[in-house]
Amino acid sequence: MAITGEDVTLEEIFPISNDFAVVEMSSADELSFVGADTRVRLNFQDGELEVRLPFGSHSRLFLSEVNRAWSDVCKSPKEAPKFEWLHKYRKASKGQGGVKQTLAPLGTTHTKISQHKKTGNSLNAVSRSPVEGNKRVNSGVEHPRVESGPVSQGKVKREGWDELKREGRDDLVRQSSHTASNKATMLAMPQFGLRDNLVRCELLKNEDIYTYLENFSFFLGTYNVNGQTPKEGLRPWLGSTSTPPDMYCVGFQELDLSKEAFFFNDTPKETEWMRAVSEGLHPDAKYALVKLVRLVGIMLLFYVRNEHAKHISEMEAETVGTGIMGRMGNKGAVAIRFRFHNSDICVVNSHLAAHIEEYERRNQDYKDICSRLLFRQHDPALAPLAIMKHDVVLWLGDLNYRLSDLDVDNVKDLIAKKDFETLHSYDQLKRQIDEKAVFVGFVEGEIGFLPTYKYDTGSDQWDTSEKCRVPAWCDRILWRGKNVRQLHYQSHMDLKTSDHKPVSSLLEIGIKLVNEESYKKTFEEIVRSLDKMENECIPSVTLSTREFHFKDVKFRQHQAETLTLHNDGQVPCQFEFIQKLDEPTYCKPWLTANPAKGFIAQGGNMDIDLEVFVNRSTATELNAGRQQIEDILVLHLERGKDYFLSVSGNYLPSCFGSSIQTLCQLRDPIQEMPLETIRELTSSGDETRTVIIDKPLDIPKEIWQMVDHLYRNAPKQGELFQQPGLRSEFVEIRDCLDTGMPDSLPGSNHSVAEALLIFLDALPEPVVPFSLYQQCLECCSNTSQCKKVVSLLPQCHKNVFNYITAFLRELLKHSTHNSLDVNILATIFAALLLRSPTKQDLAEKKKTQEFFQHFLVQDLS
Which InterPro entries does the UniProt record give (predicted)? Predict the structure, then answer.
């Protein structure tokens, strides 16, 4: 495993001064192995330091930064450096040899450093007193020492460590420059990042040579607890195996159904259920909690047996909300990824959309999770990892797929006969998998247990409420990958806390372990072969095309074109899209290249998706014509040439992302208006100066259409503004608003409600303008003052504010049917109507909600 900055402790520091030098010390035998450690000697005024650096790009970057710093000192030899930046890492106590730095390591280092005194005296003779050391900055004030054993946790100074790591990352991205006198003694750094990738790629291709499989048991559990607290021990579920598993992955859904959890992601039940899980694990082994990740009520706990913990690395956790507007975390997923020995594993716990008829929404949730849940890699140069880029993927949770085409009596009759095979043929998840709509490549074991939903809480009785839900296998466990065998798949009827029953699966997974001797031999053979061809050939690629045109780009509608790179050179190559001069990123904000960097083996191909997606942050400029779908991408080959790609297209203006003033000037749909008219309305900066019609509309017709549709069709709709709509229906609603066809809005009530929220979120200037935001916060507790602020709104903004609040008050009259209340509506709409011009903290968020509540609890007309 490569050594990183987290593997070492910074205890002392050598200043780089005029008498500093770097000399390579590797012997001829060591140089014959390119992948071997490198030895260099650092000379300074009173001593020298011999450093053995591990194979890898981090070592090259370290030497590059040392050389850059030395070069900077040489440029101004008369100016003695003061090293003032060291003060923020100093402890209050100072010891001999200067100020000691005790920044704690996260692992055990393998770096070996030997230190010598030029005069032959003891090491301590190098050090000065703190006072003298501060006077003479060129005299080796502080000395680095890296220990090979763990450092006492009592010496941790976390803030300094985090700050140092951040500075280190910032420094490493800078390019180094070499002076002629010193360049000859430095290693060939520019090619080394590519070499690392070459070695990594070859090692991956030859993995079967140096790895072998060993089976480990994984216990997977999922439980929708319906907002309850633990009322019974979990041992019948978690301790149900005859022998203790090697690992536990335990997922919960609906951990907390309170509004505080939903809106502020804060719940005491996290600790309660974590404690219940820890007490319920198999009693015949000791386990360590490696990771806990939670999004509102979706929580995943990962435990391993103590003896395996040292083999867990590269641990990351991510969350994705798929609730209303694709943000709310009442639905979505939490996930972890880690490396166990030499196998990469991903575990996902998801809670998908509810209700029997919403299987398409569940399919969409699954696809959103797969596309949006990306894990960062420890090497920042590498692209994020998607879920499917792992050796094994374990997916559990309340997937909410139901039984279709059977009424409740038929289902219960088949359950009584234990005819699970017939019953399973009506299962929505099975049907969607068979149609390859979701979970392609995943496997689920045979179901031989009762449906896990819905029961009367505290019993084994099916739902006896007025709704009388049809029983269903909502809670599922699936896997994807090789060398996986399921040992059991069952529900646990003994637990009665919730209206769901917990489910467990015990999997035996073949994990790749490394044979160190074979690995070393394979590694040496790879670096020998790379040594022969490196620097002999220049990389080159063939591009499938260099021009890309995106026709009729629309708001929030994804378009993609594929660029295929073929490595036609004699060596593997590394590519990256790079920034153009004076531009902050390699592309415009509406464009992405996926992947933006990568590695192509000799003779190999790489498909790159150029993706266009216009959202709230880019729509306004495109609507106004101040930006166009035009860009030039620069594709750079390391040690090769640059290729230029042309991206063009046309954007269809949308009411989404247009201002309230502009839309009030347009009686016709926006796409029926000449582009020059729209640009004239938005280019002056004061849209009230340009008059297209004699009498502007009181409110944008698009807002009226959506609100009127909901007023007529959805006052009693359950979970309105809380349950997401379908993306396909949003597309139809957007096109209807932008083109005027058809005459009435298509789609479900939930899709129209979500479209209204997206519209308000995309306004370039919110309903309450940014200039009045601070006044709203200051008067949030005073009803009359709040009303006064609203009176200051521009007329069209004030009309929209009053129209929406009147509609919401109407919805509250039907709260017994739609389950809406003042808190829910204030939380959702205050965030859209009173947007902060800067990042909003929790206190401001609560003040905006308090402000908006005044207009929901009484009629201010």
Answer: Endo/exonu/phosph_ase_sf, Ig-like_fold, INPP5B_PH_dom, IP5, IPPc, OCRL-1_2_ASH, OCRL1/INPP5B_INPP5c, Rho_GTPase_activation_prot
What's the count of helices (H) and strands (E) in the chain, helices before strands?
Answer: 27, 26
Q: Over the range 521-559, which residues count as b (16 or more CB within 10 Å of their CB) and which as e?
A: ebbeebbeebeeebeeeebbbeeeeeebebeebbbbbeb
Q: Is 533 helix (H, G, I), strand (E, B) or coil?
A: helix
Specify whether the CB–CB gap between 104 and 156 falls below 8 A: yes
Place of tokens 């704690």: 104
Joined tokens for residue 645: 């790609």
Read off the pLDDT of residues 588-621 as tens digits, 9 standing for 90 and up: 999 999 999 988 988 999 999 999 999 999 999 9
Helix (H, G, I), strand (E, B) or coil at 28: helix
DSSP string for residues in 122-139 = -GGGGPPPHHHHHH-TTS
CA distance 157 to 103: 5
* CA dihedral for 429, 430, 434, 440, sign (positive or negative): positive
Helix (H, G, I), strand (E, B) or coil at 83: coil
pLDDT digits (tens, 9 = 90+) for 615-641: 999 999 999 999 999 999 999 998 889
In a 3-state reduction of DSSP, which class is residue 548? strand
Residue 97: left if φ>0, alpha if ψ -120 to 50, beta else—which one? left
- Write down the pLDDT at residue 603: 92
Predicted local distance difference test score (pLDDT) of residue 54: 61
- Closest residue by Cα to residue 717 from 744, 743, 751: 751
What is the 8-class DSSP label of residue 311?
A: G
pLDDT of residue 86: 56
SS (H, E, C) 623-648: HCCCCCCEEEEEEEECCCCEEEEEEE
Q: How far apart are CA 736 and CA 253, in angstroms?
A: 37
Residues 6+ apart with CB under 8 A from 38: 24, 26, 30, 52, 53, 55, 59, 187
Angstrom distance (rounded) from CA 375 to CA 386: 7
Residue pointed to by tokens 């460590």: 161
Bridge-based pairing state of the strands 547-553 and 642-651 = parallel
What angle do the packed helices 727-739 and 749-762 form, to 10 degrees? 60
pLDDT at residue 10, as a whole number: 60
Contact criterion met (CB below 8 Å) for 732 and 654: no
Specify whether the CB–CB gap between 483 and 507 falls below 8 A.
no
d(CA 673, CA 859): 38
- Stated as kind and residue range, the H or E segment containing 621 is helix 616-623
Cα 552 → chain centroid: 30
What lies within 8 Å, CB to CB, of 668 at 6+ separation is 740
Tell me the β-bridge partners of 222: 251, 503
CA distance 256 to 227: 4
Residue among 450, 500, 456 at smallest CA distance from 252: 500
DSSP state of 230: P
Q: In terms of Cα–Cα distance, which of 443, 218, 491, 214 is closest to 347?
A: 218
Q: How many whole angstroms separate alpha carbon 750 and alpha carbon 361?
A: 11
Distance CA 300, CA 335 (A): 7
As a whole number of angstroms, the distance between CA 683 and CA 669 comes to 19
Which residues of the chain are under the pLDDT cut of 70? 1-14, 18, 24, 26-38, 45-46, 54-61, 64, 71-194, 263-265, 327, 380-381, 533-536, 683-694, 858-861
Q: Using the 8-state DSSP alphabet, how is residue 453 labeled?
A: B
Residues present in the chain in total = 861
Question: What pLDDT sits at residue 770?
Answer: 96
Asked if 633 and 577 count as a contact pair (C-beta separation under 8 A), the reply is yes
For residues 648 and 548, what is the distance between their CA atoms, to the nearest angstrom? 6
- Beta-bridged to residue 339, according to DSSP, are 313, 344
